[in-house]
Design a protein that fits this description.
By secondary structure, this protein is of the alpha/beta class. The chain has twelve helices and 16 strands. The protein has three domains: 116 residues, Immunoglobulin-like (Sandwich), CATH 2.60.40.3670; 177 residues, Rossmann fold; 90 residues, Four Helix Bundle (Hemerythrin (Met), subunit A). The protein has a six-stranded mixed β-sheet with strand order 6-5-4-7-8-9, sandwiched between helices. The protein has a five-stranded antiparallel β-sheet with strand order 1-3-14-11-12, with helices on one face.
Length: 433
């Protein structure tokens, strides 16, 4: 039987300078699922809880109208074995559709059409909506289902800590995807809710995009073939981790782990869509050694195949310690491409911090450096997004205007999304530095 995935460890260079005291090596650990869904090729059933903000601001720019349209699309594309519940929240939360009622597509549409008639106040108590959706999802919780809560909001919520605690408590069983509409929501909160549970974060600048975002989320769920992926790494003695990043399908910081006596570290990857890499990029610091081949780490990828149970894929990574500096300058194009994309994301994030601190000149320089990087890589979308953000900052000197905040959120979304460059573009990264 063919393996359901590929798992490999790639180093930025196959050669390490023996005499270097602290040689920096980038390592990409990447899993790619194969197939079209499930153990036998069938799609994994869904178990969804949809949480909809119905606060007063959702009536602006026809936001609620587009949400209604999106949920109707979702109802039209459910299979008979899918489960979905819908929760609306403002000052209170109310389940407006249970999984059993959702079998009737007409009932789904009637319930969502009447969402504006609910007497639940006009504030934003997102934790109440999340808790109600979690309770509904748990009624049909199963390892053979995709258990996810989708949260859509357009404003700042009370009790942000409660939202984080809900995700932390349930992340082993349920993932959370978040959708922020407009510019008034807390993007850091929505990003963290998604990242902590290996879901997706979506920025929606134009309410008319809401149905398309729901469609994108549904297509992604339909493409999942493997569940609950986790990379476990055992480092060889003397090898240290300086930084760790999620490298695809989105880029974000994983932090620097504490490495115990067993030299093991672990990274949650979550569900894998067919053909979409799930990867972690490590910045390692290697000690000097005598010339020769040395194994620097062992790695295991643990995952679940719906309908078949747990499985593991293994790979080790060895490098050639050498005194030849010419060999150590040769780079792996795939790895260095991702290193550059991570560096650009870091620059954009640092620029945002500097701007919030009032350091406009520093922020402008950082964004300029990020822009040069995207131009060199040929990443057109990121270049356009960063150029727009840079232009807004030069005009306004702040992030407080609606146009500036919109441009920032757009740039964040584009820069964080990993771009897969074609083989010809990767050749530039294989040249000696």
């Amino acid at each position: 039987m063919a393996e359901p995935l590929s798992f490999e460890a790639l180093a930025s260079s196959e050669h390490v300078l023996s005499s270097a005291e602290n040689f920096v090596l980038y390592v990409l650990l990447e899993a790619v699922a194969k197939g079209a869904g499930g153990a036998g090729g069938s799609r994994v059933p869904l178990n969804l809880g949809v949480v909809i903000d119905r606060s007063g601001s959702m009536y602006d720019e026809r936001r609620l109208e587009f949400v209604v349209e999106a949920v109707k699309f979702l109802a039209d594309n459910l299979n008979s074995d899918d489960k979905v519940s819908i929760v609306a929240f403002a000052d209170k939360a109310k389940v407006i559709l249970t999984p059993d009622a959702a079998r009737d597509k007409g009932a789904v549409k009637r319930a969502i059409d009447d969402i504006d008639l609910l007497e639940i106040g006009g504030g934003t108590q997102m934790a109440l909506g999340m808790r109600a959706a979690i309770d509904e999802v748990k009624k049909n919780l199963s390892p053979d289902r995709l258990n996810r809560v989708l949260v859509l909001t357009d404003g700042q919520t009370y009790e942000e800590t409660a939202c984080l605690e809900l995700v932390e408590k349930n992340r082993d069983q349920i993932s959370f995807s978040t959708m922020g509409v407009g510019v008034e929501f807390n993007e850091k909160l929505l990003q963290r809710l998604a990242q902590d549970s290996n879901g997706k974060y979506h920025f929606i600048g134009d309410p008319a995009e809401i149905p398309g975002i729901f469609e994108d989320e549904l297509q992604g769920l339909r493409a999942v073939t493997l569940r609950n992926g986790r990379i476990e790494v055992t480092l060889s003695q003397g090898v240290q981790v300086r930084e760790a990043f999620r490298a695809s399908p989105e880029i974000y910081v994983l932090g620097t782990p504490l490495v115990g006596e067993d030299r093991k570290i672990s990274y949650e990857i979550g569900d894998l869509q067919a053909g979409v890499p799930g990867s972690v990029l490590l910045t390692l610091v290697l000690p000097p050694r005598k010339p020769g081949m040395v194994r620097i780490l062992q790695s295991n990828f643990h995952y679940e195949v719906p309908g078949s149970g747990e499985a593991t894929a293994n790979c080790d990574l060895a490098v050639d310690y050498t005194l030849d500096r010419t060999l150590t300058s040769k780079r792996n194009g795939r790895v260095m491409n991702l290193v550059d994309q991570v560096s650009i994301a870091k620059l954009q994030s640092k620029a945002e911090e500097e701007l919030k601190a009032g350091n406009v000149d520093r922020a402008t320089r950082l964004l300029g450096n990020a822009l040069q990087g995207t131009q060199r890589m040929g990443n057109v979308k990121a270049t356009q997004a960063l150029a727009g953000l840079l232009d807004q900052i030069k005009k306004t000197q702040t992030l407080q205007t609606k146009a500036a905040k919109t441009t920032l959120l757009q740039a964040q979304a584009v820069v964080r999304k990993t771009q897969m460059l074609d083989p010809e573009a990767l050749k530039d990264f294989q040249k000696s530095e």
